[in-house]
Write a structure and sequence with these properties.
The complex is a heterotrimer of chains A (411), B (296) and C (280). With 411 residues, chain A is an alpha/beta fold. Chain A contains 18 helices and 11 strands. In chain A, helix 10 crosses helix 17. Chain A is globular. In chain B, helix 4 packs across helix 9, helix 11 runs antiparallel to helix 14 and helix 13 packs antiparallel against helix 14. The longest helix of chain B is centred in the N-terminal third of the chain and has 32 residues. Classes of the chains: A alpha/beta (411), B mainly alpha (296), C mainly alpha (280). At the B-C interface, helix 2, helix 4, helix 5, helix 6 and helix 7 of B face helix 1, helix 4, helix 5, helix 6 and helix 7 of C.
Chain lengths: 411, 296, 280
Amino acid sequence: MSVKKMVLISIMVLAFFTFVGAKTVVTMWVYDEMAASEEMELVQAQKEFMRLNPDIDLRIENMPHRGLMEKFITASLAGVAPDIIHIATTWAVELGAIGTLLPLNNYIYQSGKDKEVIPGAIESSTFDGNIYALPWISDATGLIINKTAFEKAGITYSREEALTWDEFLEVAKKLTHGNQYGFGIRSGRGASYGWYPWLVANGGRIFSEDGSQVLFNSPEGKEAFRFYAELFTKHKVIPPGAIAYDTWGDLRNSFLGGRIAMYIAGDWEILPLREANPDFEIDVIPHPMQVRRACSLGGSSLGVWSGSKVQDAAWAWLDFLTDAERMGVAFSYGRFPARVDAADSGYIDDPLIMQFLKELPFGINHAGLVGDYSRTVLGDAFTAVMIDGEDPVIAIDRAARMVQEALDEVY
Amino acid sequence: MSMSRFFNKHMGFFLVSPTIAIMILVIVIPLVIGFVMSFFNYNLLTLHRGTPFIGLSNYSRAVSDSAFWMASWNTIWWTLANVGGQVLLGLGIALLVSQRVKGVGVYKALILIPWAVPSAVAALSWMWLLHPEFGFVNDIAVRLGLIAEPFPWLGNPLSAQIWVVIARVWKEFPLSALIFHAALQTIPYDLYEAAEVDGAGVWSRFWSITIPYLRASIVVAVTLITIWTFNSFNMIWVMTRGGPRGATEILATSIYKTAFQRYNFGYASSQSILMVAFLAVLIFFYLHKVEGKKID
Amino acid sequence: MFSSRKKRIRRALIVHTSLIILTFVILLPVIWMFLTSLKPTAETLSFPPKLLPENPSFQNYLSAWRNMRLGTYFFNSLYVSLMTTFVAVFFGCMGGYALARFRMKGEKLYLMFILMTRMFPAVIFLIPFFIVMRNLQLIDSFTGLIISYTVFALPFSIWLLRGFFRNIPSELEEAARIDGCTRLKAFTKIILPLSAPGIAATAVFCFIMAWNEFMFANSLIMSDSKRMLTVALVASIDDFVVRWNELMAGGLITTLPVIVFYVFMQKYITGGLTEGSVKG
C-alpha cells in the first residue's frame, strides 16, 4: 500500500471515530457549591443522566453566586455563555427580557412539566408570555423564632395562625430587653425582599399586571412601608446595627448570638442554623399577615442560554433534573423542589421544613423588569427613613418615581 | 541601507512596537468600541427596538443627571481625601523611617503589609472589622464607652464615607511612604549638619532642606494616587457597593451600575468618556502648574 | 557626629516610640484578621465579641484550604502573576530602554498615552474587551488574563524602568561598545546589573498588581479549575453563609506570597526606588 493511501485511510478512520465518539457537549453553571464534590447529589444525578444518555457529555461548573448575573450577561454578549444556567428565580425575567435566555414554553408544555411545577414559581419566571426558566427549587419565607426567648418572656405562639401586625408588634416589644431585640431585618437591597410580603399582605402590589406601572406606593403600600420602617425608628424593636445587615448570614448570626429573637427567612436557613448550633431551640411560625397572608416566594431556576447550540440536549437534562424521581437532589441540599407533589413525597419529616411548606401557597411574585434596580432604590428609601429620619411617604413616593422612570425607559 | 543598519537606526521604534501593538489591540480597540457606543442608544432591555444613533443625547443626559453629578462630587472628595491621607501618612512614616536610628529597618518591612494584602481581601477584612454586631471596632468603642451599643458603621452614610477612605488610605499609603523614603535618602546628610551648626531649628531645617528635595516625589505621588483613586473600584464595591443611599457612590461604581443594573451600555460609555476627560484635564492642569512645563 | 549622645538617645526614643505606636495601629486590622482566623466559629459570633481566642487553633487554615479549594486557586494565581511579571518586565525593559536611550519622535505623546490608559474606569473596558478576547479565543484562558494584566502593568513598568535606565550614564555603555560589544551585550553586561534594584522594584509592583486583580479575573475566567484566588475569596462571601474565621484565614493565605515575594526582593527595592522616582 502506498504511503498516500495509508495516510488517507488513517484520516478516514480517525474522522470516523471522531464522529462516532463525538458527543453533544452541554455546559452548566451552578452556584451555592452544588457540584463541589463527587458525593453530592447533583453530581450523582449528572452521572446517572450521562449513563442514560451516552451521547451527551454534561459538564457542570461551580460558580460564585456574587456577580453571577453580570458574568452571565457578559458571557452571553460575547457568545460564550454556558448552555444551562442556574439562576435565582427573580433573575429570570430580567435575563429573559434582555434576550439572554431561551423561552421554554414549548418544552414545558410538551413535556407536561407545567402541571408538575408550582404555578407561582412558573409565574415568577414569566414575562410577556414567555417562560424564561424552569423552576427547580422553591422556598417560602416564614418567621423563625428563638423558642427559648419566647418561653422566657412567657409568650405563647401558634404554629398555625399568622400574627396580625399589631400582634406581631406586641410580641416584638415583649422580646426587646437588655441586649436582645425582638426582630431583625436585612437592610439595603435586602430590605425590599423582606418588605414586599408586608406590602402584599396589606393588599398592595409591587407592579401592575403587565409590569409597566409601579404600584408599591399606593395607600396600602404607604401604610405597609410606614409600619415596617417604624419598627426601627419608632418602636425600636430592631437593633441599630441592622442598618448594615447585608447578608442572610448577618441576620442568622445576630439571631444565634441572641441579638434578635425573630427574623423572617426561608427554609434554607434551617440547615445552617442547625450546623452552627444544634442545641439552639428554634421554631417556625407563619409570616405575619394583615388583610391577607403573604410571604416571599424565592428559590432558583434553570435557564437555557438563548445562544445555545444544543437546546434539545440541554432541555433533556433540565427535564431529568426536575423529575419526580430526582426530588431527592434538592432535598439533599436542604432545599425544596418546586414541584406540587414535593410536600407529599415522603422526603420531608422535619416539622420545621413543613412549616415553610405551608407558606408556599402564599408566596408572592417579586419579579420585575428592573428588579435589581428597584431593590436598590427601595433600599435607599428605607435608609433615608431609618437613618436620616425622612418622612416615609416622601421616601416611598420618590422611590416609586425613580423606578417608574426606569420602567418607562424600557417599556 | 542593509537590514541590520535599518534595524539599528530605528531600534528605538522596534523596541517599543510590541508594547504599542498589544496596547492598541487590548486597550485602544475596546476604548474605540466604547466611544462609538456612547453615541447610540445601546440598552440591552430595548435591543429588540434597535440601537438608534442618538448623537450627543447620552452626553447631555449625563450633564443633566443629578446622580451623575452626585457621583462626580463624591469622586472628587474621595480622591482628595485619599491623596491627602496617603501623602500625609506616607510622608510621616517616611520621615520617621528615614531617621538615622538603629533598628528602623524592621518597621520598613512591617509597614508594607497593608500594601501587600490584596484589595479584595482588605475590603473583606475591613467589613469584618466594621461588622455591625461582632466587629472589632464596635467591640473597642463599646468597651471604651464611646458608644452604648454596636453601631452600623457601613450602614450610616456619613460613617460609611469616612471608613471607606480610612480603609483605602490604610491599604495604599505604603506606596507613598516608599516613594518619599527613597527621595529622602538622596538628601546629603551634611546639609543638615551644616544647618544645625548654623543654628537652624528642626522645623526650619525641614522646610528649607527636606521639602525642596521632596518636591518631585510629591508630584509623582499625587499624580499616581489621583489617577488610581479616581478609578478605584474594588474596595468600595466590596465594602458598600456605593451605598448607603449613594453616599459612597463614585463614578466608577455608578457607571458599573448603569451598565449592569440599568443595562444601558451606551449611557455608561458616555459617562466614562466624560469621566476620563475630566480626569485628564485635572492632571494636565496640575502638572502644568506644578512643573511649569509638560511632564517629561 | 552630628549631635551629642544625649540628643541621639532622645531622638532614637522619639522615633521608636512613634513608630511602635503607628505600626501597631496600622497593623491592628491584620492582627484582628489573624486572631479571628484562630477562632472556632462559635467564638467568632459570640455577642458581645471576644477579643482573644479561647481555644486558638490553626484549624481554619486547613478548612479554608480544603473547603475553599484554595490549593488550585493559589497555584493559578501564582502562575498568572509570575508570568505577568516576567512578560511585563521583559517588554518594560525594552520600552524603558528605548525611551531612555533614544531620541524618539512623539516620546512625550507616547508617555502621555501610557498614563492615559490607566485613567479609564475598568468597566468601560469590560464588554468590548471581552468581545476582543473572545474573537482571539482567549476567554477562560490564562494567556488571555496574562495579556490583560501585562497590558495594564506595562505603562508603569516602562515609566519606572525608563527612570532607572536614565540614571545610568550612557558613557558606560559607549565605552563598552567602543570595545566591541553589541548593544544587547552592553545592555546585559552593564545596564542590567546596575539597574537590578529598579528591575526588582518593577517586578514586585507587577506581581502585586497581577496577584491582587479582581475585575478582569472575575470576568474572563469561567472555569472553576482556572479561577484566581482573589475571586474565589470574594466569592466565598455569598448571601447565605459567611464563615468569617475561615475567610480571614483564607485572606492571610492570599497575602502570604506577596509578602514572601517582597521580602525576597527587599534588599533591591528601597535601593531601586531611590534611583527611579526622584528624578521622575
